[in-house]
């Protein structure tokens, strides 16, 4: 219990700390060559210097101090080293400049520095020294966000459906070319070409409108200066949020904290999963778990009922039970390889050849996707559901069965109307364990449908609304990718803790929902027996 709660406490403290905006410190650092450099950043960690970096008397060789701090300076498009380990003594001489700002960007990470001016097509519109600069910058950013939202709606609701319709027409034309031309086919081809011309004309018009909006988004920028004196211009279209952390009061920090948390759980990741939110990963995890639950529950329950109630007990049934127990101990990566080979290539490839011939050689179901990921996880968690259900069936007293028989019920009526309902809490227990296992797995999902960045959600407003063939994101894989595949490990440390915290909260919410259902069922049938 101490280990579990201790681990949860560490994840919670560091995960919630990801959304806190600390003050920016400006320090002057002199390296071993004697050259001085001015740095602006925030303290990310403190630690004692290792023993091998100290002299025999316990002092540090370089700075005679046993404590060092990690200073994150951002601006990775301007500096190769954005994280510096510095002696803590330097912080005593650090300043806290009031005009220092943090700019969250769509690309190249955050920027730490000072504002210079608002510019329009290279010309200064408003200097940073003006009293209305902060207010005007906020108004500019709001206008740009509205324009970006309109551009996104244009691409998602108009350009994307047109592109998909044109692709469908092209696939139909391929089928006609393969099967040969007749009078009916020629007529359909002419009709298809006319429809394609209409689609192309509408697409060109929308594309020109999109190009116009993109040109508008590139006109205005924010001229900024780094702590070392370098100046650059950041397009306003590339800016997500601007904060002045050294001006913020406690109430402002709490408001900013809440806004960052909401953005974290409601926005998409950016910068190769090193920044931004995790909403697609949350959504993909929940959808995959729900689809897996729909698949594994009936198969696991029916298999357990057959083994316990209908099958003749003998060596073959014992062999089946031993096989089920052994399946629970098979490494998860083996399930992933099996799912890739059997479900994706054999089953999915056969579906494509039978129903999606016009799309070949581009696969539809013959490639990893949501359905194959859920089916693989259902196979992985099937032994847990079977064993739990069988345990629940074995705990039903024999007297209840005999009482049902005495009242004239048949064997089938006794099993399905008396025994199975009483064993429902045990079935829910198996489902709870299956959900917890599936939500935390990573290795098999990497092979059967989970990707680093998914272009679209598996559920949206376009027909057929639920797209089982799409690839998805998963919180477990997002944590693995951010923590172990990122070149910026120091910068993603707090992000990994925050993602772990959300994953734990998600598993707890799913389990609490299942536990509540189980308790209600248990109370219902206990009252019925009494």
From TrEMBL:
What lineage is this protein's organism placed in?
Answer: Bacteria, Pseudomonadati, Pseudomonadota, Gammaproteobacteria, Cellvibrionales
All copies of the ABC transmembrane type-1 domain together span: 282-514
Chief place where the protein resides: membrane
**Stated name of the protein:** Phosphate transport system permease protein PstA
Q: Which GO terms describe its cellular component?
A: plasma membrane
Matches recorded under Pfam families: BPD_transp_1
Q: Record's PANTHER family? A: PHOSPHATE TRANSPORT SYSTEM PERMEASE PROTEIN PSTA (PTHR43470:SF6), PHOSPHATE TRANSPORT SYSTEM PERMEASE PROTEIN PSTA-RELATED (PTHR43470)
Q: Which GO terms describe its biological process?
A: phosphate ion transmembrane transport
The record gives the membrane topology as: Multi-pass membrane protein
Where does the record place it?
Answer: Cell inner membrane; Cell membrane
User: Which keywords fit this entry according to its UniProt record?
Assistant: Cell membrane, Membrane, Transmembrane, Transmembrane helix, Transport
Q: Which organism is it from?
A: Cellvibrio polysaccharolyticus
Q: Which domain of life is it from?
A: Bacteria
Q: Which residues cross the membrane?
A: 278-307, 327-351, 371-393, 414-436, 495-517
Q: Does the keyword Transmembrane helix apply?
A: yes
The UniProt similarity line reads: Belongs to the binding-protein-dependent transport system permease family. CysTW subfamily.
Keyword Ligase annotated = no
User: What CDD domains does the record tag this protein with?
Assistant: TM_PBP2
Q: Which gene encodes it?
A: pstA
């Amino acid at each position: 219990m101490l280990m579990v709660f201790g681990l949860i406490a560490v994840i919670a403290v560091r995960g919630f700390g990801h959304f806190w905006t600390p003050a920016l410190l400006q320090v002057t650092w002199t390296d071993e060559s004697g050259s001085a450099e001015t740095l602006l950043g925030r303290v990310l960690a403190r630690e004692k210097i290792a023993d091998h970096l100290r002299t025999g008397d316990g002092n540090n060789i370089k700075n005679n101090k046993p404590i060092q701090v990690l200073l994150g300076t951002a601006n990775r498009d301007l500096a190769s080293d954005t994280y510096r380990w510095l002696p803590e003594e330097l912080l005593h001489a650090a300043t806290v400049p009031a005009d220092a700002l943090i700019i969250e960007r769509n690309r190249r990470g955050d920027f730490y520095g000072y504002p210079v001016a608002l510019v329009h097509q290279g010309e200064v519109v408003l200097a940073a020294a003006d009293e209305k600069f902060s207010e005007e910058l906020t108004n500019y950013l709001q206008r740009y966000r509205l324009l970006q939202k309109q551009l996104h709606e244009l691409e998602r609701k108009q350009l994307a459906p047109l592109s998909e319709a044109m692709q469908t027409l092209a696939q139909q034309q391929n089928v006609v070319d393969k099967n040969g031309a007749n009078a009916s086919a020629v007529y359909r081809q002419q009709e298809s070409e006319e429809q394609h011309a209409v689609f192309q004309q509408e697409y060109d018009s929308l594309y020109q409108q999109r190009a116009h909006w993109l040109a508008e988004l590139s006109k205005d920028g924010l001229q900024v200066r780094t702590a070392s004196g370098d100046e650059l211009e950041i397009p306003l279209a590339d800016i997500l949020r601007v904060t002045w952390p050294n001006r913020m009061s406690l109430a402002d920090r709490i408001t900013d904290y809440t806004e960052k948390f909401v953005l974290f759980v409601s926005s998409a990741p950016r910068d190769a999963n090193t920044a931004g939110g995790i909403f697609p990963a949350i959504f993909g995890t929940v959808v995959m778990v729900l689809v897996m639950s729909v698949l594994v529950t009936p198969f696991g329950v029916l298999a357990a009922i057959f083994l316990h109630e209908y099958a003749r007990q003998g060596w073959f049934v014992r062999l089946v039970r031993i096989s089920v127990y052994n399946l629970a101990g098979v490494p998860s990566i083996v399930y992933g390889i099996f799912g890739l080979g059997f479900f994706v290539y054999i089953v999915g490839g056969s579906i494509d050849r039978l129903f999606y011939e016009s799309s070949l050689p581009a696969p539809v179901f013959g490639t990893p996707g949501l359905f194959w990921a859920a089916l693989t996880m259902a196979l992985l968690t099937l032994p847990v559901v079977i064993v739990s259900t069988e345990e629940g069936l074995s705990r039903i007293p024999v007297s209840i069965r005999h009482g049902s028989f005495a009242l004239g019920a048949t064997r089938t009526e006794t099993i399905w109307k008396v025994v199975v309902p009483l064993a429902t809490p045990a079935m829910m227990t198996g489902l709870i364990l299956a959900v917890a296992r599936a939500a935390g797995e990573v290795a098999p999902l990497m092979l059967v449908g989970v990707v680093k960045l998914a272009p679209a959600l598996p559920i949206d407003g376009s027909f057929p609304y639920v797209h089982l063939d799409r690839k998805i994101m998963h919180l477990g894989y997002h944590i693995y990718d951010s923590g172990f595949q990122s070149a910026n490990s120091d910068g993603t440390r707090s992000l990994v803790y925050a993602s772990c915290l959300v994953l734990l909260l998600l598993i707890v919410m799913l389990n609490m929902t299942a536990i509540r259902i189980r308790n209600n069922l248990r109370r219902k049938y206990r009252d019925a027996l009494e």
